[in-house]
Hints:
Layout: H1 10-24, H2 32-50, H3 59-77, H4 83-97, H5 104-122, H6 128-148, H7 158-182, E1 195-196, H8 211-216, E2 221-227, E3 238-244, E4 246-248, E5 251-253, E6 260-261, E7 273-279, E8 286-287, E9 289-290, E10 293-298, H9 301-305, E11 307-310, E12 314-317, E13 320-321, E14 325-331, H10 354-365, H11 370-384, E15 386-387, H12 399-406, E16 408-409, H13 411-424, E17 429-436, E18 439-440, E19 447-450, E20 454-462, E21 467-471, H14 474-477, H15 479-484, H16 486-489, H17 494-497, H18 503-511, H19 514-539, H20 542-551, H21 559-577, H22 579-586, H23 590-605, H24 615-620
Parallel strand pairs: 15-16
Antiparallel strand pairs: 1-13, 2-7, 2-19, 3-9, 3-17, 4-5, 6-11, 7-14, 8-12, 10-14, 11-12, 17-20, 18-19, 20-21
Amino acid sequence: MKPHNFTPSRKFNLSLIVLITLNLLPHLEDHLTTTLIIGLISIVWRILHEYQKVKLPNIILKLLLIIGSCYLVFFQHGQITGAEPATALLIAGVSLKLIDSVDYHDAMVVLFLNFLLLMSRFLVSQSLSLTILGILNLALVTALLLQLHKGKEIQLKFLPLLKLGFKLFLQTAPLLTLLFFVFPRFSTGFIQLNNETQAKSGFSPQLAPGEVSKLIASDEIAFRVVFGKNVPQPKDRYWRGAVLSFNQGLSWEPAKEQTQTNYSRQFRGELFYEQNIILEPNYGTWLFALETPISLKFKDQMKQMQSYIGNGRVYTVKQNNGQKLSYKVYSDPMPKQMLLEKEKYLQIKNEDDERLKQLIKITLQQSNNELDIKNNYLDFFSKNLKYSLNPTPVKNNSVSEFLFDTKIGFCEHLASSFAYLLRASGVPARIVVGFQGGEKNDFGEHYTVKDKDAHAWVEMWSNTLDRWLRVDPTEVVAPLRLELGGQMYHSLSQDELNAGLSQDEYLARFKSSWYFKVIVQSQLAFDLASMRWNQFLLDFDKEGQRQFFRKLGLENLKLKKLGFLSLFALIIFFIWLNRKRYFYRKGLTQQKSIYNDLCLYLDAHLVKKKIYFGPKDYFQLF
């Protein structure tokens, strides 16, 4: 029987389902709807068909499913052309292929489509976990392709299959490694995915009740950072993202303002904090840095010219193509500053509430300067307000309702109302949103900042100090939030928070738990490996490749020469791959060569030849 007449068994079809499911999982992050609706329906349908519970759809139903899939992709992306819609269509196409009849050729197509599914995800992410999945995937797909050629002799034993796949992978590993180092690098990608200015993580340059608390629910990593000589204390790790100056009650927005190109500047000194940051790709155009950043530098000069600095010393990049960003920052905790456009930082949405007016009047009467005003309001907050992730909703963004009625809020409620009171008292103020905290990895030197560290605080202009002064009302309402950091604080239950333990007692209890010893420690070890992997990939860009060849004495290697070198490496690899067969066949007579070819054919399709069989014994079997 010829291989192309072979119909795969149920066991093989189920293995295809498992393989496709494995390749669909990484796409859940960016294509959740398409993967769940089309992918899940197709997988369940095919499994039921394999166990003879349902029939495969007819041609009319297939056509309707194809049209529906195209409409779903168009509805999500507004088009069906482009990199992201194409990926969604690929997911839909591979999924729908499951509910089609599967013969030899169909199985071959599905296996090759799995390669495309994997590669489309690599365009978006090159994380360590995805790389490990890619190696496993490559081994399984290659092994299944070889098994498929065996026809009825196909054997789907997992461990031998995996062993065969990894054996083939190891044979190609030298070529893959060589191509990685010699294939030309480019400053910008051929395909730009996630080319958006809006953050996908939930981080927003606008602040409204509930914005930060939604981000806190995520345990995703925002960025990793390695400090230089100086490391700030946990309570001083404020990472600036956006500065908001336009007030609408409890809601704030950034004012429209000019930005300027961020030209590279070098700063060194005992007072500066040096940070090497790897930012995850889900934060739009925002670049986070320890306050107050005075220099931000990309190694890539093209990216440097596409980064900008705005009022409030916040940095942005022109576009983020869905890739991690690596940059170096120097921050000065006591920079020289000026107050520009004072009126902009005094604007508020007026509220006609006598309680609010009375609070402001009493505070002004008891204060001699802006520092007294700040302290009096902090005293009011500490005595009257409570901190909670699930506060009572506030109607119409009313500051008065929050301060005097609900009295329970999250950091955005506290910061918004505090800045409002300062402005209403004649003190210029603004909101800063970003992150506060960061946990050190016990296995390495880097710190990890997560979405759970998201935070909002206030900056006020002090005439006495002649600079912008950070004021965080959360510090007096929920001091443990800053002492423990967002990651640990938000992992504690309300009962644990109400226990009234000290910072050291909370840390000791947490580190003695089995969860920390097993789960957290494992996560930290993998996070260190991910950090090293990400840094390696980011460093080996176009300039990194030049430095690599410079060390080998190949300083003047041009792009065209790299292309020829890659092609030469491929030719050498295929020559090496076929060397045994070539030299073996060269020493054979014509009769022996024909006999060996015949044995190979019979062995694959009829009866396997035992190692001790001679020609006569073997042909007697037929």
